[in-house]
Model the fold of this input.
Amino acid sequence: MKLNTGNFSKAEPKQSPSG
Done:
């Protein structure tokens, strides 16, 4: 989920360090 990646990046940087 690339779209969600950015959103999760703020809440969970560990899950999506890319965003």
Notes: The radius of gyration is 6 Å.
